[in-house]
Records
---
Amino acid sequence: MTTQRTQVAIIGAGPSGLLLGQLLHKAGIDNIVLERQTGAYVLGRIRAGVLEQTTCALLDEAGVGERMHAEGLVHGGYELCFGGARHRIDLHGLTGGKRVTVYGQTEVTRDLMAARASAGLTTVYGAKDVALHDFDGAAPSVTYTLNGEPHSVVCDFIAGCDGYHGVSRASVPPKALSIYEKVYQFGWLGVLADTPPVSHELIYSNHERGFALCSMRSATRTRYYVQCPLHDKVEQWSDAAFWDELRRRLDPQAAESLVTGPSIEKSIAPLRSFVAEPMRFGSLFLAGDAAHIVPPTGAKGLNLAAADVRFLSRALIEYYGERSRAGIDHYSEKCLRRIWKAERFSWWFTGLTHKFPETGAIGQKLQRAELDYLVSSRAASTAMAENYVGLPFEA
Ligand code: FAS
Ligand code: PHB
């Protein structure tokens, strides 16, 4: 058994783990990242696309914002499409000047991986059988195997950044956790294509056939989604079937100007609202999808993960710098106040834009009434806009 020593052992090399590792490194705090997949596999997962300003600021703080500023698309609004027409939500005007940046999670992860490698920090890819030990005691450690060889990491703290299916939350005794979960009875079929965007901003569409979203990764690469039955298999959807269904769910002008092409990635994601409370167990801290999941409608998943990492990195820097436990003792409650507001917004936005057969014809009528109210009321649009760009952090 090879034994390594570090201050913080980070499980997971997704955006949460890599961003935490970078912020800790810049503060002089030693850390090791253990990731069960290869780096290429992690980069191959197509996920989030919209960054809040606070997330961009955190990436700058981590020293990885250069390409995001050079290649990211700054958006001051998006459009809601319903009843055959589009209505712009003026994020910039309604929030005193805030915007969002369209820059794929894959690129964020790539930038973080590059920074970690150039700093010569330890990231173990292909770490199998990761197990957490004594995180509620005085000698926390993490064991794993690499190419069949056993390894141990002795540490002060463990950051569980290993996502919804990770080992960290699963290592907590069930009686110590309160789980809140809602599973939606539909999924998102997503397509990535090298085609020009149908519009210069995102379009969220409420249609009687189901939800659709027109997003993008650059001026030449698009990301589209249509709501699909929960048990559909991606093999059932040819590219032609996807483009036809997307067209049907858009207004005539967008349907007409949609440029189609071969999918370079196509996948179906389930939707759920999920929170595990609390997020700290002794020297184990959960961050990102390990602790919470939102339906992607509100573009909150990655941004919530970044917010957790902001709180956790500051708490650990305070601990090592001032030997103060205040930040780590309040980590969970501070994260959860923000998480639940984002859960609510994501649940509300999903309820407003997706088709729910169980609510019948009156359900669609009520959705249409709320959409009409939303685009005709500055107060209602402002409430939507301030949640979408990201609520201010509490002091
Ligand atoms: P991740 O899940 O990204 O990373 C966890 C890492 O831990 C993974 O690399 C995994 O391999 C590793 N890991 C797991 N178990 C391990 C173990 N036992 N040992 C070692 N490593 C382990 N958010 C949006 O804002 N917009 C979107 O459109 C959007 N679409 C999404 C689509 C899908 C299919 C999914 C699953 C999520 C989507 N999200 C979206 C949310 C997503 O972006 C997450 O919020 C984001 O990936 C969170 O990052 P992490 O917390 O790092 O978790
Ligand atoms: C994306 O580009 O993948 C994306 C954008 C906005 C969302 C969800 C996903 O609300």
Note: The pocket of arabino-flavin-adenine dinucleotide (ligand 1) is lined by residues 11-17, 34-37, 42, 47-49, 105, 127, 130, 161-163, 165-167, 269, 288-289, 296, 299-302, 305 (CB under 6 Å).
---
Amino acid sequence: MEKKLGNPKQTIETIQKHGFMFQKKFGQNFLIDPHVLEKIINAAGVTKEDCVLEIGPGIGTLTQYLAETAGRVVAVEIDRNLIPILEETLEGLDNVTVINADIMKTDIRQIAETYHGGKPLKVVANLPYYITTPIVMGLLEGDAPVDTITVMVQKEVAERMMVGPGSKDYGALSLAVQYYAEPEIVANVPPNCFIPRPNVGSAVIRLTRHAEPPVQVKHPKLMFQLIRASFNQRRKTLQNSLGNAPELSFSKEQISYALEKLGLPAAVRGEALTLPQFAALSDLLEESGDF
Ligand code: SAM
């Protein structure tokens, strides 16, 4: 391996040596703080039994740390200008495979098959912030085996994943994350831990996939349609937001009947409902027959 990255000096030297230009469109903010890197590694709980999927290795900083603790690391990087740099910074680390691809177009199930005999992967990454939500939702909803996701995200997004009703941050992302996984913020990370410095604070969040979802619902797809429709128009009452949603075909009467059965006020908004209440609403509306 070339020199250990994860500090400002080595990072700047590596970037300058290769004449690398940061691409804003790829959300490139490279980690330069060894304490933060160690926190991510510890929180991820990676062992030599694990195969880690790293999304966006950049110049290979976190990858070097992961290579020490994991059995295997598969790192998917979109920016082809980083590939020659990675070849150098990861040289000699024979448990690391770098794939030059867009993670949104990558078959993660296939990665698990090829590199881990189909067993669950651990995802560890300092995510590009412009696509955090689609990446995390794709991992949770997709068919690839993934048991934990330990990622650096915008602080505000980490908080949205954690909160329940009563917070302005509560929304479709909170409910979806909590349906699939147990979220825990393991570190808050200030902008000066990155080059270039992002404009926002960051946090490391660990999502541990539930063995069983915390609520039983007959049609999770319908429940998520209801959740999305409720928060698309979050200031409206559920009767209006669900009644007007083009992708749903429930009448206002059906919705008000279901709310009454749940003991909820007729003018309740979606932002007041817990995950179990959305599950119960979904089952009641499903029974009413128009699904
Ligand atoms: N892991 C490095 C670190 O911590 O220093 C870099 C993290 S940087 C926040 C995000 C990385 O994701 C960049 O290297 C960027 O090029 C890469 N990236 C952005 N969009 C991507 C995509 N769609 N698929 C794969 N990698 C992507």
Note: The CA atoms of residues 66 and 73 lie 7 Å apart.
